[in-house]
Design the sequence.
């Protein structure tokens, strides 16, 4: 059977995208934006591929980026942003410990670049662009950060917050911006990222990693605001940023350390784009809808262009799934299912004969369904593996950061359960996962689970207490942040709009740190 890509499918008919984040309905597509993405001209055709002007939606986002005021944020929006910020503070503090990150800090330190901003977790300073990159990578390292963009009843899996939050933090520290300025910039960036993603829908068929794709223009908006660009300059910066988008999902398939690199590289590139625009560089006129612009080149097309500007400047959207496990979200329903079955059946790991994880056929083609193999960077292999994550849950009762340490994931008990775990297609369309366990004494027990994770924002969303508890767990795992320092971070995030100088807040975040990596000169 011929494989039909989502780009071709969306161009010709109506469809439904169903994922662990929920169901995103796609209407019939006859819009020019989608046709531009789906029906590329042949090399022999005579056509004018210049951007159409005025570029109304790109211009609207540029104005939104630099003109929207703090006063437009309502209380609910402000509270949601503060929860995302606290979640990211925990992720970056703990993420500094992850594999490869000390080397990254060492590279920045050894570069001898300007000391404008601070790396979190190490006593290292660097340029705003480098620090935004490093801190975003740290925050993504355990795949534990808040995710899933929500607009109304649409929820699409996403990874924006490490890029947007760490770009805003680095710019705010270097510019001695107020807490209000930091919050406003972050709210705008998160809003733009959510709108672009929901307008197109996440699509892995093209091979692009959605993390840098949908974070790129959001990070530009943030940096442009701090740089005090005009809307015209911001529009240029968006075009320049589109020319720098990169990052594919091959690194996940291959279990590479650099699965987290695009999350930070897009922050660095956005700041470069803004600096170039500030100095007179021009970019493509219509970053969003040009024939070879954002939607045409990096997505399956703009299925819902109205989402981009509807309520712009009045309604602010963002990510809302505060992950309870440091693991790919695609596996969270399976982890929830394994925990429920273990509790109900009182299963002991040594009593398990075999485990069958039944998944929808579409997920059997996901990178998390590849056979688990602990290769050169086993953390990435394990983080994106149904097989490992389910086996690990039956062994430990949950998934935690320490389970990715090499001695833990290569241990005999883990290897034994992984070898007993297999994947199979799920026949029931109403389920997201079903796990069957056979025990040594001949028992067979099963547990069904819906397609959404237990703490999905449309199921049982996380409370403020949940986010605070998660932050404390991350600080405890980090091992270099005192309880008193953690308490102060929580208190100051709660009243972040009162901060007069975000450099002072950054001094709190960097008060303690891990040892300087060998060879640094910080």
Sequence:
């Amino acid at each position: 059977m011929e494989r039909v890509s989502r780009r071709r499918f969306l161009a010709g008919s109506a469809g439904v995208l169903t994922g662990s984040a929920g169901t995103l309905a796609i209407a019939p597509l006859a819009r020019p934006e989608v046709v531009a993405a789906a029906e590329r001209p042949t090399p022999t055709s005579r056509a004018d591929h210049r951007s159409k002007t005025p570029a109304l939606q790109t211009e609207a986002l540029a104005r939104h980026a630099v003109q929207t005021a703090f006063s437009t944020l309502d209380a609910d929006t402000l509270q949601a942003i503060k929860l995302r910020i606290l979640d990211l503070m925990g992720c970056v503090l703990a993420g500094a410990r992850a594999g490869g990150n000390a080397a990254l800090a060492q590279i920045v330190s050894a570069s001898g670049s300007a000391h404008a901003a601070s790396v979190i977790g190490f006593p290292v300073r660097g340029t705003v662009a480098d620090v935004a990159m490093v801190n975003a990578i740290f925050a993504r390292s355990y795949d534990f950060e808040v995710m899933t963009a929500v607009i109304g009843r649409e929820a699409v899996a996403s990874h924006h917050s490490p890029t947007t939050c760490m770009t805003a933090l680095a710019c705010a520290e270097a510019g001695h911006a107020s807490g209000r300025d930091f919050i406003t910039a972050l709210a705008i960036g998160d809003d733009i990222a959510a709108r672009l993603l929901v307008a197109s829908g996440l699509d892995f068929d093209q091979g692009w990693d959605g993390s840098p794709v949908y974070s790129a223009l959001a990070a530009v908006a943030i940096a442009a605001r701090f740089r005090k660009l005009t809307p015209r300059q911001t529009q240029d910066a968006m075009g320049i940023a589109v020319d720098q988008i990169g990052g594919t999902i091959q690194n996940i398939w291959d279990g590479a350390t650099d699965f987290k690199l695009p999350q930070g590289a897009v922050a660095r590139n956005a700041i470069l784009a803004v600096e170039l625009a500030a100095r007179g560089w021009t970019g493509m006129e219509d970053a969003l809808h040009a024939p070879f612009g954002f939607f045409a080149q990096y997505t399956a097309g703009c299925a819902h262009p109205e989402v981009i500007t509807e309520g712009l400047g009045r309604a602010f959207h963002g990510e809302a799934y505060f992950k309870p496990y440091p693991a790919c979200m695609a596996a969270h329903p399976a982890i929830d299912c394994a925990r429920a079955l273990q509790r109900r059946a009182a299963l002991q790991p040594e009593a398990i004969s075999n485990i069958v994880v039944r998944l929808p056929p579409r997920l059997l083609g996901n990178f998390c369904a590849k056979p688990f193999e602990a290769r050169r960077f086993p953390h990435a292999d394990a983080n994106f593996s149904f097989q490992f994550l389910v086996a690990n849950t039956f062994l430990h009762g949950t998934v935690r950061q320490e389970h990715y340490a090499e001695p833990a994931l290569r241990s005999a008990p883990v290897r034994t359960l992984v070898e007993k775990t297999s994947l199979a297609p799920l026949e029931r369309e109403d389920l997201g996962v079903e796990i069957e366990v056979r025990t040594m004494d001949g028992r067979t027990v099963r547990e069904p689970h819906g397609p959404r994770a237990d703490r999905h924002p449309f199921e049982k969303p996380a409370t403020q207490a949940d986010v605070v508890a998660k932050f404390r767990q991350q600080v405890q795992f980090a091992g270099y942040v005192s309880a008193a320092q953690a308490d102060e971070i929580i208190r100051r995030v709660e009243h972040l709009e009162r901060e007069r100088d975000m450099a002072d807040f950054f001094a709190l975040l960097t008060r303690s740190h891990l040892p300087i990596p060998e060879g640094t000169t910080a």
Q: What stands out?
A: Residues 1-39 have pLDDT under 50 and may be disordered. The radius of gyration is 23 Å. The chain is about 45% helix and 10% strand.
